[in-house]
Write a structure and sequence with these properties.
By secondary structure, the protein is mostly helical. It has helices at residues 43-65, 76-94, 102-107, 112-121, 131-137, 148-159, 161-164, 169-190, 200-213, 225-245, 273-279, 291-301, 307-311, 350-357, 370-383, 396-407, 412-419, 434-442, 452-455; strands at residues 8-11, 14-20, 33-37, 318-319, 326-329, 344-347.
């Protein structure tokens, strides 16, 4: 019970917070002893307010202890200012108030709230109120000035923590890289300014800077509206979620409603069937390429999988001993899938079945290394002149898979399921048995050449 009621004293019916200044802070804090009324007769309420005061005092002392290093440690000044501001918010909470900046208190309709706060600072028998209480209750602690770079670090380390749960290292790096690009472009234009100094004019200037990049010039191709909107959206989200995180939800977002009309994503062409038959159904074309990359490529042709989905297949999700050999696209403990619709089971047929028989453990060399896989395949295709046009990509095989299903008359819902696309139509059933899915895919499968399996890289 003593530990449960630590730092609590009852005087009459009311509870007080009472605590001696720790010895190792005595040279930093001129107070010797802290005693504050918690304005309650309830022990439960007193404990809650006591906990807020403990946290506030600890944060305050932490900020004091670092002052001698403020000027020589990069970013330390902003961190200490944030600690002092957090301490003030908790101090106000312990007195029964939400922290409000003094300007907001003075501008509020009527002055009942201000009077109520002033009355809470009065001490029995007179005497000056506690300085920290006064600053906290009257909103006199200046909010920290945080730069765009510092806000982005807070966003990555604290605000977006739940969004990153379950992502692999590569997925986190990709997520961060896209958002950091917008931050760096904004800083390139305006400098690493304080978040509270960003105005609509700064946002409009960034919008105009992007508008120029959407127009082709003699030396450069035009960028897409999709790229511009992504960066504007990332800055808009950073600004909104940072200020919500520090408790200022009502700030106008300078990046609000700034976007460009999108004319559609850049069309990625598919591979024609004749091109696939002439160029790819002889595995010797990839002689010299890593065997895992070769097998993964052939696994993609008749499954329509995203390259990253195949690269991250776990051994338990490669089911070769089933009546219908198949693969299962699943999330894992350290890697997310693109969406819920991406979770699916795909029968193995044709060249993809032959390739997966030689890769029963998956593709460990490329697991969580999507960039390495993409670079390996792109280099192999370009050096061998395997792209019909400069607009073709490895992803074009996924487009080919969908086009072949459509032209063969496969059911729309089955096509969505096998592609891992969301289906807006009402869902009935489970998409059909594995036998049904296999028989449908056999309608579009390329004929496997006689010597194909012998020419594939050896199983490993």
């Amino acid at each position: 019970m003593r530990e449960l009621n630590r730092y609590l004293q009852q005087r009459g019916k009311h509870w007080h917070y009472a605590r001696r200044i720790p010895a190792h802070y005595s040279d930093l804090d001129t107070r010797i002893y802290i005693r504050k009324s918690l304005n309650t007769e309830s022990i439960e309420v007193a404990r809650v307010r006591r906990d807020a005061l403990i946290e506030a005092e600890d944060l305050y002392w932490a900020s004091l202890s670092g002052r001698t290093n403020e000027e020589r440690i990069t970013g330390r000044k902003a961190q200490l200012a944030m600690k002092r501001f957090e301490a003030a918010k908790r101090q106000a909470m312990a007195k029964g108030f939400l922290y409000m900046p003094m300007d907001d208190l003075l501008q509020s309709d009527g002055h009942e709230e201000l009077v109520r706060r002033l009355e809470s600072l009065e001490r029995r028998g007179g005497g000056a109120p506690d300085l920290l209480d006064t600053q906290a209750v009257l909103g006199a602690v200046t909010p920290p000035s945080v730069t765009v770079t510092q806000a982005f670090k807070i966003y990555c380390d604290e605000i977006a923590m739940s969004e990153l749960l379950g992502k692999s290292k590569e997925q986190i790096n990709g997520w961060r890289k896209i958002k950091l690009r917008a931050v760096n472009n904004f800083i390139k234009l305006h400098g690493d300014m304080s978040m509270d100094k960003i105005t609509r004019e700064h946002a409009r200037k960034f919008y105009k800077w992007w508008a120029k990049r959407l127009v082709p010039t003699r030396n450069q191709r035009a960028l897409t509206a999709n790229s511009a909107n992504r960066e504007l959206g990332n800055l808009r989200k950073l600004y909104r979620e940072y200020w919500e995180f520090v408790g200022e939800e009502n700030r106008d977002n300078p990046f609000r409603r700034l976007n460009f009309t999108e004319t559609g994503l850049k069309d990625i062409p598919h591979f024609e069937d004749d091109w696939v038959k002439q160029q790819f159904l002889n595995p010797t074309i990839f002689k010299g390429l890593n065997s895992e990359a070769t097998l993964l490529f052939y696994a993609m042709i008749e499954t329509g999988c995203r390259p990253s989905e195949l690269a991250n297949l776990q051994e338990e999700n490669i089911v070769l001993g089933h009546d219908v050999p198949h693969i299962r696209i699943r999330a894992s403990t350290n890697r997310q899938v693109k969406s819920l619709a991406s979770i699916r089971d795909i029968p193995l047929v044709g060249v993809s079945l032959a390739a997966m028989k030689n890769a029963p453990q998956g593709f460990p060399h490329y697991r969580d290394k999507g960039s390495l896989l993409s670079a390996s395949l792109m280099k192999a295709f370009r050096t061998r002149n395997l792209f019909p046009t400069k607009n073709h990509r490895i992803y074009s095989f996924r487009h080919s898979f969908e086009k072949r299903m459509q032209e063969a008359g496969l059911d729309f819902a089955l096509r969505c399921l096998l592609m891992g696309h969301k289906n807006s139509r009402p869902s009935y059933g489970d998409g059909g048995s594995m036998e049904y899915r296999r028989d449908e895919l056999l309608k579009i499968a390329h004929t496997v050449p006689v010597k194909f399996e012998r020419l594939l890289p050896e199983p490993y």
